[in-house]
Amino acid sequence: EVQLVESGGGLVQAGGSLRLSCAASGFTFDDYAIGWFRQAPGKEREGVSCISLRNHRTYYADSVKGRFTISSDNALNTIYLQINSLKPEDTAVYYCAAEIRPRPMGLDGVRYNYWGRGTQVTVSS
To answer: How many helices (H) and strands (E) are present in the chain, helices listed first?
Structure first.
Protein backbone atom coordinates (compact mmCIF):
# COMPACT_ATOMS: atom_id res chain seq x y z
CA GLU A 1 0.00 0.00 0.00
CA VAL A 2 1.44 3.36 -1.04
CA GLN A 3 1.73 5.84 1.81
CA LEU A 4 3.09 9.39 1.94
CA VAL A 5 3.47 11.19 5.27
CA GLU A 6 4.47 14.85 5.52
CA SER A 7 6.06 16.46 8.56
CA GLY A 8 8.03 19.55 9.55
CA GLY A 9 5.44 22.30 9.28
CA GLY A 10 4.94 24.92 11.93
CA LEU A 11 4.67 28.59 12.79
CA VAL A 12 7.63 30.72 11.67
CA GLN A 13 8.26 34.45 11.39
CA ALA A 14 8.78 36.01 7.98
CA GLY A 15 12.38 35.56 6.89
CA GLY A 16 12.76 32.28 8.74
CA SER A 17 13.22 28.75 7.42
CA LEU A 18 11.59 25.33 7.60
CA ARG A 19 12.45 21.90 6.26
CA LEU A 20 9.53 19.71 5.32
CA SER A 21 9.86 15.95 5.00
CA CYS A 22 7.86 13.41 3.02
CA ALA A 23 8.29 9.79 4.05
CA ALA A 24 7.31 7.43 1.24
CA SER A 25 6.56 3.73 1.55
CA GLY A 26 4.76 0.91 -0.20
CA PHE A 27 5.92 1.64 -3.76
CA THR A 28 6.25 -1.30 -6.15
CA PHE A 29 7.99 0.74 -8.88
CA ASP A 30 11.28 2.60 -9.26
CA ASP A 31 10.45 5.29 -11.82
CA TYR A 32 8.45 8.03 -10.17
CA ALA A 33 8.54 11.67 -9.15
CA ILE A 34 7.64 13.28 -5.85
CA GLY A 35 5.99 16.68 -5.99
CA TRP A 36 5.29 19.27 -3.33
CA PHE A 37 2.04 21.21 -3.57
CA ARG A 38 0.43 23.82 -1.36
CA GLN A 39 -3.05 25.18 -0.81
CA ALA A 40 -3.88 28.34 1.10
CA PRO A 41 -7.37 29.12 2.42
CA GLY A 42 -9.61 30.31 -0.40
CA LYS A 43 -7.02 29.57 -3.08
CA GLU A 44 -6.50 26.77 -5.56
CA ARG A 45 -3.81 24.16 -5.12
CA GLU A 46 -0.42 25.26 -6.42
CA GLY A 47 2.46 23.08 -7.52
CA VAL A 48 5.70 24.09 -5.79
CA SER A 49 8.48 21.68 -6.73
CA CYS A 50 9.13 18.12 -7.82
CA ILE A 51 12.02 15.70 -8.07
CA SER A 52 12.63 12.52 -10.04
CA LEU A 53 13.71 9.66 -7.82
CA ARG A 54 15.18 8.01 -10.92
CA ASN A 55 17.68 10.71 -11.93
CA HIS A 56 17.27 13.45 -9.25
CA ARG A 57 16.24 16.10 -11.75
CA THR A 58 14.26 18.91 -10.13
CA TYR A 59 11.67 21.47 -11.13
CA TYR A 60 10.44 24.60 -9.35
CA ALA A 61 7.51 26.93 -9.75
CA ASP A 62 8.58 30.49 -10.57
CA SER A 63 7.01 31.73 -7.36
CA VAL A 64 9.49 29.81 -5.18
CA LYS A 65 12.69 29.71 -7.25
CA GLY A 66 15.70 30.84 -5.25
CA ARG A 67 14.04 30.22 -1.88
CA PHE A 68 12.90 26.57 -1.96
CA THR A 69 15.13 23.54 -2.48
CA ILE A 70 13.90 19.99 -3.02
CA SER A 71 16.10 16.97 -2.32
CA SER A 72 15.79 13.25 -1.69
CA ASP A 73 17.42 10.52 0.34
CA ASN A 74 16.53 7.39 -1.56
CA ALA A 75 18.06 5.12 1.07
CA LEU A 76 15.59 6.52 3.60
CA ASN A 77 12.73 6.88 1.10
CA THR A 78 12.41 10.48 2.21
CA ILE A 79 12.00 13.69 0.20
CA TYR A 80 12.73 17.10 1.68
CA LEU A 81 11.64 20.63 0.91
CA GLN A 82 13.92 23.29 2.38
CA ILE A 83 12.07 26.60 2.57
CA ASN A 84 14.13 29.75 3.18
CA SER A 85 13.25 33.44 3.41
CA LEU A 86 9.67 32.61 4.26
CA LYS A 87 6.99 35.10 3.33
CA PRO A 88 3.45 35.42 4.71
CA GLU A 89 2.13 34.37 1.31
CA ASP A 90 3.86 31.00 1.77
CA THR A 91 1.28 30.17 4.44
CA ALA A 92 -0.56 27.04 3.29
CA VAL A 93 -1.03 23.35 3.82
CA TYR A 94 1.84 21.62 2.05
CA TYR A 95 1.25 18.21 0.46
CA CYS A 96 3.59 15.71 -1.11
CA ALA A 97 2.43 13.48 -3.93
CA ALA A 98 3.84 10.74 -6.17
CA GLU A 99 3.58 10.40 -9.95
CA ILE A 100 4.36 7.07 -11.60
CA ARG A 101 6.58 7.18 -14.70
CA PRO A 102 6.57 10.97 -15.14
CA ARG A 103 6.86 11.77 -18.85
CA PRO A 104 7.72 14.57 -18.59
CA MET A 105 8.02 15.51 -14.96
CA GLY A 106 5.86 18.47 -14.00
CA LEU A 107 3.64 20.18 -11.45
CA ASP A 108 0.19 19.38 -12.82
CA GLY A 109 -1.48 17.86 -9.78
CA VAL A 110 -3.97 15.80 -11.78
CA ARG A 111 -1.08 13.66 -13.02
CA TYR A 112 -0.09 12.56 -9.52
CA ASN A 113 -1.33 9.20 -8.34
CA TYR A 114 -0.88 9.27 -4.56
CA TRP A 115 -1.13 12.03 -1.96
CA GLY A 116 -0.23 12.62 1.65
CA ARG A 117 -2.46 14.31 4.20
CA GLY A 118 -0.46 17.56 4.37
CA THR A 119 1.42 19.63 6.93
CA GLN A 120 0.55 23.21 7.90
CA VAL A 121 3.06 26.01 7.33
CA THR A 122 2.15 29.37 8.87
CA VAL A 123 4.33 32.45 8.36
CA SER A 124 3.74 35.47 10.58
CA SER A 125 4.77 39.03 9.74
So the answer is: 0, 11
Cβ–Cβ under 8 Å, residues 110 and 89:
no
| pLDDT tens track, the chain, 125 positions | 789 999 999 999 999 999 999 999 987 767 889 999 999 999 999 999 999 988 889 999 998 999 999 999 988 889 999 999 999 999 999 999 999 988 888 999 999 999 999 999 999 99
Q: How many residues does the chain have?
A: 125
Strand 10-13 to 119-124 pairing: parallel
Nearest to residue 73, comparing CAs of 21, 1, 2? 21
